Fold each of these.
Amino acid sequence: MQLKFGSSPVVVASSPEMAKEFLQTHDNIFASRPTTAAGKYASYNCSDLTWAPYGPFWRQARKLYLTQIFNPKRLDSFESIRIEERRAFISSLYALSGKPVVIRDHLTRLTLSTASQMVLSNKYFAQSEGARSLPTFEEFQEMIDTWCLLSGVFNIGDWIPWLDRFDLQGYVKQMKALHKKFDRFHNHVLDAHQARRKTERDFIPKDMVDILLQYAEDPDLQVKLTSDQIKGLIQFVIYNYSYTSLALDLGSNRLLKHPRLIRKATEELDRVIGRDKWVEEADFSKLPFLEAIIKETFRLHPPATLLLPRYALEDCTVAGSNIAKGTTVFINTWSIGRNSKYWDSPEEFIPERFLEKDIDMKGQNFVLLPFGSGRRRCPGYNLGIKLIRSMLANLLHGFNWKLPHGMKPEEICDRSSACAIIKLNLIAS
Ligand code: HEM
């Protein structure tokens, strides 16, 4: 579907065939991102990999993440952090056992705490609101929520450039204010890391910021990294974790509507893991029903209902239609997941459908694209999926899920994540 938003041509691809055209057949032409106010003002002038235009900086940064930060060996080396965070999360839920909890709050806290532990060793938050130079953990969480919101807003100035300077909706003002807060925080984190590098004998990188700083000093880098680019690269690693808690929240929401599925998943866990153990990362391959629940959640509720926009670098013809250079392309994963040509009873939550079909989530199969596909596919896939599997499996394994007294499954709203904030009783089992 070709449209015009203001003065900008836009294409929305809503079928797996068209998604394949843009993300695979013509991936090289659509490998860039449009420049948006969010990228400019809230992401260090598009230095955060997500918004970076296709080119030498993006290629170098992506290589850095894939080879140095998200490679399997490095991710394994951070497993102890994930285990420790998971234990703290489970203990805090045990303490609330029998009381209604808003599960989303806990998941968000867990994912953010795990992320900041891996990225920056988690010690940069003020303990109380009195220490004003740094945000408290809660304030930082709020900053990230605002960043996610502002990154996804429809900012008129992005589509009608001559209106940009008026900032009619006030978003740019908010982005600039938020940027100031993040910048203060990043400066502090970088200074502390640099100081440790200089003073510690036999320095060994402990977290992702250390790895990034070490890499930035490599004299052979094709693009020398500026301090803003380094901050941009730190920024995205922490903030993309919100996808993880959102996915988990939506999955929990759907399960609560279908107690039969909770029973089936816990039967699998009891049989494979046993009642006296927690689920570890090595167990995932033995839990096909859990995997099917995750895929079905992503099919109906992809965290990015429209994939991050792509941008045409040159004129081209796609499936017989001419697409002009400068066109923005959106892939509509929400409608692809509900297309009755590919899915029986598409509105129904039926994880079993994935037990019969061999469909992966890595972007090879265009009917299911929660992590995108092609050159700009999510580089955090391995980490994101580990966190989701581990948290969902252990929540199901360790707790009985119940709705608060008097609430019926059919009263749960599943249309958006905002409505997915529900209370449930987690009873230590
Ligand atoms: C449930 C978890 C996650 C989901 C569903 C998810 C989903 C996505 C999607 C849909 C895209 C756009 C892909 C495209 O344009 O084709 C993306 C891009 C990206 N994701 Fe993720 N993501 C998740 C977790 C993470 C994590 C944990 C990180 C990093 C710590 C991360 C980092 C990124 C980055 C940097 C990009 C931009 C890549 C580029 O433009 O080159 N994601 N993600």
Amino acid sequence: MRCRLGWHQWRTKSTEDGGRFQQCTRCDKVDDRSKLPPIAGGLG
Ligand SMILES: [Zn+2]
């Protein structure tokens, strides 16, 4: 199991909110660091 060694097979996924994150295709682990907030802009 490569996942136990930290060799995850990240796959970029997107949420309905427009946010994006990476999830491993093998263990379904979600990379919190890759979490990005929904498209910002237009504020002000
Ligand atoms: Zn994994």
Amino acid sequence: MDDVTISTNVHFCGVGQGLFVRGSTLIKLVRASAESQSEYTRTLLHWVYDCGSTDDKLVIDKVNSLAGADQRPQFSERAPDERPILDFVVISHFDCDHIRGLSSLLKAYKVKRIFLPYHDPLAILGEVFSSLDESARDVDPRDLIQAWTDPVAYIRRIQNGGTLGDSMVRADDDPTKIIYVPYSDDPAPERGNREPQYSDSPEPVMAIRRPQSEEVPSSQDADVSILTASSNVVWCGVWEFVPYVDPQARQALLSFKPAEKIKLDAQLEKIKTRSNDPKETEERLWEAILDLKLQFYKAVSRKKVRRGRSEKVSPREKNVISLMAYLGAVPSLPSGVWARIPDDKSAYPPQVMPNVPGWVRHHGDGALFTGDGFLRGSKDISKLVRFLGVSRIENTVLLQVPHHGSGQNGSKFTQDALNTPINVFCANPSESPYHPDTAVVDAFATWKDASTGYRQALRVLVNRLDFSVRLVTGARAYPGYYWWV
Ligand SMILES: [Zn+2]
């Protein structure tokens, strides 16, 4: 009889105000052969969800120390240049506190695939402007302009170690595949509605297409593709990544008149050209970026004012593009999650006094990473629930609380609907914007166990200390079994 165990280690890196999640998933298939002798195959996947912080040094040090630790024999697969391999990286959106470590990550690791939210360069500019304040001034404006307007060109440039202008020159024979994830209008394929089709292949199964010309930046790059809307990516037939982009992003980020869009597009093109000119000073480029920011906000505001709404650009307009990621087993098998509760009390928000030391165990093996997405009101939440389906929602035991625990993005409705026993807030409470919000931390105090009623949920603040959670699936799932670190 075929048997499967899946073991996922989710490591939240302490990078202060930011998000850097490093995951490893071991899929072990046990197949009965004709001679009734079992055959084993093991697939070990390494992945990352977001890699940024408002503290540049913190995230870069963390990337380099992890890459050093990953030079282990367990990494059976190495790039020709000996770098460890990441099977996939998900970038939720392009704010500094989510991508600042990306260039270090791409240098330290060979990355097979990167998933990005599908975007209009202007929409992304609107969104990233939220992080564009004085604190971003130590970042090279040329890097920012390229990362935001054409992330593929930016990624290629980092990988080639080249300077601006040679971004399409390939030094790598096997370039990173970049996959844009479109807006999720329809529900994802239902989870576990058929017998799992076990597969030994370490390559994921997914439906992608080539972009049409000009559909996305760098659409001419042979390794850029677009995922079929509302689809999932499946490894070995048993473990899935289900990306979600709120379809509202479309309206929220491009809510200005076509004529204004043309004007802004032209202004953006001009900035791009200027950033390729080595004679342009950083200061002048900053000025140009800030002016575009102003014009963009004015254009968004004009439309809103016409509709009788507030003139201010809302947090939603800045962050709604966030690419969320559900990860979990496809078949519904016995499963559990273990979290080592940190001994250090400073690992908890001040409101939390955990009363269960040691390991905690709950049923389920799904994790939901939300970036800075919106799951505050019932409308946002029901869209996500409809998209993922009840089975995945019930299977979700680990939540990265949206937007570092901001009161704009999460609420008691979020926890009522998702009902997650383990909730992680990644933030530095002593620094602006002072996440997490007390009301949100309180909202995640309990979860409802079907058999025993309300129980205390685990809430962990990941500031400087790391925090690890282990999700285990399979008939013989218990802590320590098939574990490799
Ligand atoms: Zn953020």
